[in-house]
Amino acid sequence: MKTKNMTKKIWVTLIIGITFLNSYSQKLNIIKLDSLFEALEEKNLFMGSIAVSKNGNLIYSKSIGKANIETNTNLSFKTKFRIGSTTKIFTSALVLKAIENKKISLNQTIEKFFPTIENSNKITIENLLNHRSGIAEFLAADEFSNGYTEAKSEEEMMAIISKLENNFSPNSKAAYSNSNYYLLSIILEKIYTKSYQELLDEQIIKPLKLKNTYFGGKINVNNNECYSYYFSDKWEKESEGDTSVPLGAGGIVSNPCDLIVFIEKLFNGKIISLESLKTMTQIHDKFGMGIFELPFYEKKGFVHRGQIDSFSSVLSYFPDENLAIAITSNGAMYDKKKILIATLNNYFNIPYKIIFEPFKPNVEDLEKYVGEYSSSKYQKTIKIEKDNTKLFAQINNQTQFLIEPIEKDKFENIWEGNKIEFKPNNKEMFFEENGVRYTFSKN
């Protein structure tokens, strides 16, 4: 889900080098990890919680910042957060469970449920699950130009989604859209004649005995929930989105301790069958079904992240290591993915340097990078575009992704793991993907 742009006028100059042994041990250095969170809290860069488990056992948890700044209430391991799009893992599991129960099938089209949606006679349940439907993002509609603080009925939401023009033909490519998972939520409600909240409770929460997870409503701080905040000289309270809008695309409330239990049980066949899990984690054009691949050196994990209001979350699992990491935040100037990567490097004892002060290229330098690049050894073109002070890359007309500056002429996309280095004087660009480096020339 979308959130307000958060800015900070004065960035703290702080570089912490965290260096570990060269061998790949599998044990957290608690002192080093604590030092990261102490620095984040001291410099007002992050408020939130983390939980790490190994083989189903909690091996680390930490909470920093405030649940309610007005009352000076601290976050704790019991505090619950809105998790935004991480909800989609739950929704995908519910849909795959419905398929196991013969309620629906992957290849059935959706015109029975949504006859007013363009191409509904061609779009399948599977296309919704792996974002290959072509249905446009409903948050881009005029009705949500100023946010979504007011409740929306199913009829209102369907009218909004139905009038959107599709972005592409079904199954021709993939593009992330919250509309897909809103529609999946409605399908679940229709086939079971129960609310999404009831289905979540009956099929996941109660069987797993999750005590801090539920479909969210208005924030209730008396129930260990927290407000979210954005930074503008100081932390400012964010407005509350109404969860009737995202529904199963982003409406769940939880905390890291519950999230690691959920992801562990999911990958151990306790929610859906292992065969369904294999279907869920089949990656095509970088999309699984409510989940994404998370490569880390030679390790292979899975992940989903979420944002709603100024809340954010990330939930990851590495099956071969039985390692789960969940991070939730109610205010962040520092990207949660960087915290996730720091935690993984800590766990695997890989040298890693954390830089809190970002490199800021000037606008004139960014102009030099803009253009289309091609390579004889990489059969796709890469287009570089600038939007104000930000740089974006696009591979073969796929969805654009932000590339963040590391140092002069060097950028990275921390979620995809891609690295880009420009040589503007030579009209060259080096693109690194999965550890392989390719040379591109500017067209």
Automatic annotation (TrEMBL):
PROSITE patterns with a match to the protein in the record: BETA_LACTAMASE_A (PS00146)
Record lineage: Bacteria, Pseudomonadati, Bacteroidota, Flavobacteriia, Flavobacteriales
Name of the protein this chain belongs to: Beta-lactamase family protein
Beta-lactamase-related domain sequence ranges: 39-332
Superkingdom assignment: Bacteria
Pfam family for this entry, one: Beta-lactamase
